[in-house]
Amino acid sequence: MKRHSKAFWPLLIAALVFYAIVQGLIMTDMLGAYHTNTLIFIAINIILAVSLHLVIGITGQFSIGHAGFMAVGAYLSAIVTMKFDLPFVVAIIVGGLVAALAGLIVGIPSLRLRGDYLAIATLGFAEIIRIIFLNIDYVGGAAGMQVSKMTDWTYTFFFMLITILVIVNFTRSRHGIAALSIREDEIASDAMGINTTYYKVVAFVIGAFFAGVAGALFSHNFYIVLPSQFGFLKSVDILILVVLGGLGSLSGAIISAIFLTLVSTFLQDYPETRMIIYSLVLIIVMLYRPQGLMGTKEITDYFRGWTSKGGKDNGKDTIT
Amino acid sequence: MTMLAVKDIDVYYGNIQALKGVTVTVEEGEIVTLIGANGAGKSTLLKTLSGLLKPKSGSIEFLGNSIAGKPAQGIVKSGISHVPEGRRVFANLTVEENLELGAFLRKDKKGIEADMKKVYDTFPRLLERRKQMSGTLSGGEQQMLAMGRAIMAKPKLLLLDEPSMGLAPLMVKTIFEVVKDINEQGTTILLVEQNANMALSVASRGYVIETGKVVLSGSADELQSSEEVRKAYLGGH
Amino acid sequence: MEIIQQILNGISVGSIYALIALGYTMVYGIIKLINFAHGDVFMLGAFIGFYAITQFQMNFFVALIFSMAITALIGVLIERIAYKRLRNATRIAALITAIGVSLLIEYGFIYIRGAQPEAYPDVFGRQSVSLFGATIDMKAVLILSVSVILMLLLQFIVHKTKTGKAMRAVSHDTEAAKLMGINVDNTISATFAIGSALAGAAGVIFGLYYTKIDPLMGVIPGLKAFVAAVLGGIGIIPGAMVGGLILGLVETFVSAIGFSLWRDAAAFIILILILIFRPSGIFGKNSREKV
């Protein structure tokens, strides 16, 4: 079942080494606040991209309301740290859990819908969530809520790692295979006795959980949390990561999260240019490569092809 | 005079070849029928003739002009009308509006009016229901409407796809009488039918199509007496 | 007589939604695309009207027609450039493209002229009439009359003209429409032209009513108009009109009873409820998605 088990340990070790190097650079002040922040942004966007990838790329349920779950995590975690003075880790987990609950509430009714109708329903839910926060005085309404900066590289990195591990494992489990079959042909899956609604809701809830985690990290990175940070445009920001990377490719989502975060950091002072580029990316990808840059392929697929062509391995790998 | 000459056409749905080197001719004034099992390629041939599908190779000449690969609207204009399988009437439009759309490319208002009257004379049922949404008609009435709609284009060649499908025997008889009638008034007809008995009784010639190929052709009498045809399509003994 | 005024306000807002919703519903009916950029065509209509009145000193009605003509052209261009290639794509690919087009119009427009809002010229002043003891703003009367005229005109086009019949035929069965000799591409373009012109008109009267316009003004009314289209039954023209009016009235009512901050949520709650309980809308036949 575990297709990429060979690559798993080397990749995990490489990730931890990368973490340690960055952490070392931060501690020795060799990496400034600006670059650290960019890395944190990249990691948060990877969490968002990977969690939406689970919903869109794996189960094929088109959600354009991911920012709504992110908002739930952002606000709930802020309440936990700011109003109850509890530790940040607790806040992140509470944020994720309440977002997951929101995912359940949204998912059960709307996942009966398909395609563009589902997309619009998720958009509607995300707007309702935003308007609810806008109207709650306890969290500051339109003026927002003060939040202390607690997000750092360590928190972000490890939650990113957990997100990736959980979603990779889910994808390879029986659950994941059932979910994949829904993406390929929902009606046939139904006919084969797969409880499509159950798997769709599970994927949706897990996706919402990690969107909530990302929201928690996001709000504690900024000093303030505002309803306007989680509008439709934020959902589009997340959507584009999955669309560009490939609908169905986890590594594609990660790569495009890294790439597009860098692009938007460079274009920070030119928000219109950034949006124009984003919109052109959406249009051009859909017109010329609707499956996204990587389609459903993973980066390790390319790597495997490369090594076997290069003749460096003993040939065992090519059989798997 | 040859009205339609289809020569050696290949047609594909994606990667699947639906017609393999089909050659069919229709002379002016004839009723020619295509018989064959479900999925043999009869409807594909009609769709190719009316421009809904494009042949990959081969030629189609209508009245001496090549029409292979031309868009559907150009083909309608040149004088071919296609009554598709399953009637495909515009359910959200009234009977009369459906007939008007049949004459979509015509500009002669008086001629259109006269032809509409003719259609109503042929199918009095349609006159009774002219203001009704065509989705509310019975299957037989929808078939009448689909044929009437095609006639409104004043075609020289009428392509009829399974006009008897799903109809009661009495209605089938009526429809086939009208087919003969339309033909006698000067319209050439290419008829696709699963009901081979009925088809051969009105046609002068026929082609048998199996898995995308013409396997047999001849006059209606020849086909009716052919052992193979009787076994396979006429339920013969 | 507060209530009459509120109802009239609701109808005014509702008829703006209805005008935009018509374009959504017609386009969805014919190519099954949620044209996300439709709200932005509405925005462009408002700006074209604004420039026509302030820069070219056009009379309000001339500006209205001018704006409709240009937005019709814009609608056709959007369809030909971006959507035409997507005829055989999945609905999701089409939806993402439409979101892209929407953002491109918004931010392209901001890039060109900046994000600052404009104050719409007050061409009619503060005239009002008295009716059953209620003071009625002349603008509301004007909006209502323009909307009614345009909707009647639309009904005429759709039911009595050849183009309208072709539009209905294509939306029901594209292939059969081709067999009638109907040029499907031109019919789709005509649908975009008419829908966009209605959105353009809605933009101009929106400017007149709310007096402030900006490049992102199309987002929320666009979404709400889509809700109105779904509410009435997407693809159904009278449905869009009724849906728009209902939505306008509900919103005005929610504001009137003191929940103005919740007003925007009302539309989305309606959307969710209708999608879950009656996805085919008020006027649609209830059928589950076919296999």
From TrEMBL, chain A:
User: Per the record, what is one GO cellular component?
Assistant: plasma membrane
Pfam families xref list: BPD_transp_2
Q: Which CDD domains match?
A: TM_PBP1_LivM_like
Name the source's superkingdom. Answer: Bacteria
One of the entry's Gene Ontology molecular-function terms is: branched-chain amino acid transmembrane transporter activity
What are the UniProt keywords, alphabetically? Answer: Cell membrane, Membrane, Transmembrane, Transmembrane helix
Q: How does this chain sit within the bilayer?
A: Multi-pass membrane protein
- The primary site where this protein sits is membrane
Give TM segment ranges: 7-26, 38-56, 63-82, 88-108, 115-133, 153-171, 201-226, 238-263, 275-291
Task: List, alphabetically, the InterPro entries matched.
Answer: ABC_transp_permease, LivM-like
Subcellular locations according to the entry: Cell membrane
Report the protein name in the record: Branched-chain amino acid ABC transporter permease
From TrEMBL, chain C:
Membrane topology per record:
Multi-pass membrane protein
The main location class comes to membrane
A GO term (biological process) for this protein? L-alanine transport
Transmembrane stretches, start-end: 6-26, 60-78, 90-112, 140-158, 188-210, 265-284
| Pfam families from the UniProt entry | BPD_transp_2 (PF02653)
What the entry lists under CDD domains is as follows: TM_PBP1_LivH_like
Q: Which domain of life is it from?
A: Bacteria
Keyword vocabulary terms for this entry: Amino-acid transport, Cell inner membrane, Cell membrane, Membrane, Transmembrane, Transmembrane helix, Transport
Listed GO MF terms: L-isoleucine transmembrane transporter activity; L-leucine transmembrane transporter activity; L-phenylalanine transmembrane transporter activity; L-valine transmembrane transporter activity
Tell me which family the UniProt entry assigns to this protein: Belongs to the binding-protein-dependent transport system permease family. LivHM subfamily.
Question: What is the designated name of this protein?
Answer: Branched-chain amino acid ABC transporter permease
